[in-house]
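Re-run requested by the PI after the first attempt was lost when the workstation crashed. Everything re-entered from the original request form. Ligand of interest: guanosine-5'-monophosphate.
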Amino acid sequence: VLSAPSGTGKTTICRMLKKKLPSLKFSVSHTTRKPRNEEKDGVDYYFIPLNDFEEKIECGDFLEWARVFEHFYGTAFESVDRLQRKGEDILIELDVQGAKSLRDLNYKAIFIFMLPPSLKDLKKRLKKRGTESEDIIRGRLEAGKKEIQQLNLYDYILTNIDTEETTENLISIIRAEKSRKERYKPPSSDLKALISNKENN
Ligand code: 5GP
């Protein structure tokens, strides 16, 4: 699970991550917001009307969902289950509310939070986007501060100073987590036999 306050550069990092670690699959969320410039339906999000979103909530289709700023976002069970069944490594981008929901569900995931180097820097980055009004920028900054205060929900904290380095650090976390002994699956029958024998002794 990856979260970051708006303006931290998460989209850029995820784009780089997709290139550098193509084996990592991204869960595609549902949202009621309209697609931005180059976003594609079914790739970046499933863009659906509010009515459909509400229906999905009622049907219990979402693992988690939240209202973020003025729109709704949700992770459908189907989106992660499909990848999980294939044994894929999955990245789920969530806001802090979504991460909290998964924590409350005791969901087995690694929770990573990405921070800007400073609040001043975050403000600068939000302004640089140039797509939002002063009011919205102020709102996002305040929301970001509240999110940062919930950093205890997370296992890892990354500071995004240099996008290249942050992406590498993210990959290091993923690789290290994959090497945890509880995730070890012996690649051969002789090792499997040896290890299970040892465990029995
Ligand atoms: P954006 O509109 O910029 O793509 O995303 C806004 C925020 O919603 C980001 O913090 C993003 O991580 C979060 N988000 C995206 N998909 C989901 C989701 O399925 N559930 C939750 N809780 N948040 C999401």
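Saved to the shared folder this time. The first strand starts at residue 2 and ends at 3.
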